[in-house]
């Protein structure tokens, strides 16, 4: 019985295993990330390479957490195992020991402002990096890699940058909790702290900013496309 099969039998002692379960390690993931891919006959747990050195008990908790997401049923909570609790505690705290080796001057300045103003300087600096220019995912905090990633679209506005930085640092401070195979990150406590940002209209400002950026992006794209079609605007305004 391999590790994944053992995790399954412990989580579902009364359920018959009908798939081939396996675990694979990959360097394609960021630190301590993982996913599960499955078909009608198989289920593969893909873990980042860092998991190789972690104890089997913690890895079983990770696999069981992924299994809980796959097999969850509405109004039928899955009972958590001790290994799942151990895994969650591990994931919440491993970032505190992750090496900080990635930063950016503008993001670091934002971090320092936000840390001093809202956390009294008590938040340890995480890795800080720019993401791509995206309007849908403005920021993320990766627990395992202890990394805050901010959309490049925010580099033009310091206040909005600080707001998203504040949001991600709240994730670093308050972590998450899990229930029935689902992780909860934006709790009522989190939302209450988020509203303590000193501009009460910051969400409206953010919406206006993104709307303007989207319109500009669409117009720019349309203009690039139409410049390849002579007579487009002449035909359009007939």
Listing every helix as H and every strand as E from the N terminus to the C terminus, the arrangement reads: HEEEHHHEEEHEEHHH
CA-atom Rg in angstroms = 22 Å
Shape: elongated
CATH fold category name of the largest domain: Zincin-like
- Please state the structural category: alpha/beta
For the secondary structure, the number of strands is 8
- The overall average pLDDT, rounded, is 88
Structural overview:
Helix content is 45%, strand content 16%. With 238 residues, the chain is an alpha/beta fold. The protein has two domains: 3-96, Zincin-like; 100-202, Metalloproteases ("zincins"), catalytic domain (Zincin-like). Helix 1 crosses helix 2 (56-71) and helix 2 packs across helix 3 (82-94). It starts with a helix and ends with a helix.
């Amino acid at each position: 019985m391999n590790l994944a099969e053992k995790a399954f039998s412990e989580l579902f002692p009364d359920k018959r295993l009908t798939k081939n379960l396996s675990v694979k390690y990959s360097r394609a993931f960021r630190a301590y990330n993982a996913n599960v891919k499955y078909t009608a006959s198989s289920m593969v747990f893909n873990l980042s390479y860092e998991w190789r050195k972690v104890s089997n008990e913690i890895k079983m908790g990770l696999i069981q957490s992924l299994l809980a997401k796959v097999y969850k049923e509405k109004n039928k909570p899955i009972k958590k195992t001790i290994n799942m609790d151990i895994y969650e505690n591990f994931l919440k705290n491993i970032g505190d020991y992750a090496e900080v080796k990635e930063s950016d001057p503008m993001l670091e300045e934002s971090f320092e402002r936000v840390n001093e103003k809202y956390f009294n300087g008590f938040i340890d600096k995480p890795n800080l990096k720019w993401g791509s220019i995206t309007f849908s995912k403005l920021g993320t905090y990766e627990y395992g890699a202890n990394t805050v990633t901010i959309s490049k679209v925010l580099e033009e506005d310091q206040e909005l940058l600080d707001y998203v930085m504040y949001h991600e640092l709240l994730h670093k401070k308050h972590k998450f909790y899990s229930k029935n195979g689902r992780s909860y990150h934006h709790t009522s406590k989190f939302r209450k702290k988020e509203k303590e940002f000193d501009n009460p209209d910051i969400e409206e400002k953010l919406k206006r900013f993104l709307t303007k950026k989207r319109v500009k992006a669409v117009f720019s794209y349309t203009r690039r496309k139409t410049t390849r079609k002579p007579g487009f605007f002449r035909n359009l305004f007939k």
